[in-house]
Every structure is written in structure tokens, then in C-alpha cells.
Amino acid sequence: MGMRQIGSKKSLSEQAYEVLKEAIITGELRPGQILIEEQLASQLVISRTPVRSAVRRLEADNLVEITPSKNIVVASISEKEIQDASQARQLVEVEAVGMLAETITEEQCGELEAIIQKQKDAMTRKEYLEFMEYEYQFHVKIGEFCGNIWYGKMLESISLLQRRVLILTWHLEKDWDYVIDEHTQILDALRSHDKEKSRKAMQFHIINTPMELKNQK
């Protein structure tokens, strides 16, 4: 396992959480894999205490599960979870983008535009993991900007699951252009403060990005 070691300038538990979270999302730590605190601490070159704290946060994120026998297991993703997440996105994210269309500022448009540009750059370099990071950021920003803290939290959680599934299945590898075009259409609708057009563009994007596990490696 090639997880990076971490130093001591920040909170060790925070750094351990970030490193382990990224390893799970990118598939370096696979669904069903058993994690051992002592080994994780050794690989990260820290004590077991911050690792234990990080694991508790990962459990709250539904990224690991603690079994009755106290084993730490990387959480699997069921088809039911994916179906529920897709349904939730159509309810929450379509509403959030409609709300945002009424209040979005040029500065916020600029932030979304910068994410799309970074996604284009990642596509040019064929950096799929980086591409998916910006896919995640685009949707999380919409939740953050919409003005409803609960929509923001829900979208962050749902987008995290989506990012993990799409990385595990490499589902968008041949559809990079379409994703960027759809993000651009959403941004254009937001910039024009067209609520209905924004909602329709987001709904099309969600429907056009199905999440499936059948191609999971």
C-alpha cells in the first residue's frame, strides 16, 4: 500500500483521516478489505491513537464499518445505496441548483468556471482520478453556494459516494467531454439566473451519469 506518510504540523488525527479517506475513495483500500490499526499506524508513522480517532470519523462517513468482532472493514457499496443516492440527488440537487440560480454571484460563477477549467486540464492529461476530484468539487460547491446548510451537507455525502463508485468502476472514462459540456450548460443557466433551465440541466446531468457496480474491478 502506497499511502503517504504524514508529519506533525497539523493534527495527526486530521491528517490520518484525510489520507485514509482518500485511499478508500480512490480504491487504494478496496471494499471489504480489513484494516488493522497497528499496521495503519506503522505505515503512516504515527501512534495508534490518532488512527483510532480517524477511524471513528471514517465510520461516521460510512467509509468503514466496525464488525461485532471489532474488525475495521472498508465499507462495501450496495446497489440499494446507489439507487437511494441517485434518487436523493434528483430531489436535493435539482432543488439546490434552482435555489442557487436566484442568488448566485459572479464570484461564485467564477469558482465553478475555474473547476470546469481544471477538469478540462485533467482530461487533456488523461488524469482520471483528478478529473473525478473536480467532478466532486463542482457538485459540492453547488450545495455550499445554494444557501441551505442541510442541502450542502447532503450533497457532500452523496457526491462522495458517487465519486467512490465512479472511480471503482471507471464509468466516466470515455465520457469526459459530455461531463464537461453538461457542467458548462449548468453554469450557463446559473449565470443567466434561469431557475427552470438550471433545474433541467442538472436533472439531465444526473440522469446521464448512472452509477453502476457491475463493472467494478
UniProtKB/TrEMBL annotation:
<keyword id="KW-0804">Transcription</keyword>
<dbReference type="Pfam" id="PF07729">
    <property type="entry name" value="FCD"/>
</dbReference>
<feature type="domain" description="HTH gntR-type">
    <location>
        <begin position="10"/>
        <end position="77"/>
    </location>
</feature>
<dbReference type="Pfam" id="PF00392">
    <property type="entry name" value="GntR"/>
</dbReference>
<protein>
    <submittedName>
        <fullName>GntR family transcriptional regulator</fullName>
    </submittedName>
</protein>
<dbReference type="InterPro" id="IPR000524">
    <property type="entry name" value="Tscrpt_reg_HTH_GntR"/>
</dbReference>
<keyword id="KW-0238">DNA-binding</keyword>
<dbReference type="InterPro" id="IPR011711">
    <property type="entry name" value="GntR_C"/>
</dbReference>
<keyword id="KW-0805">Transcription regulation</keyword>
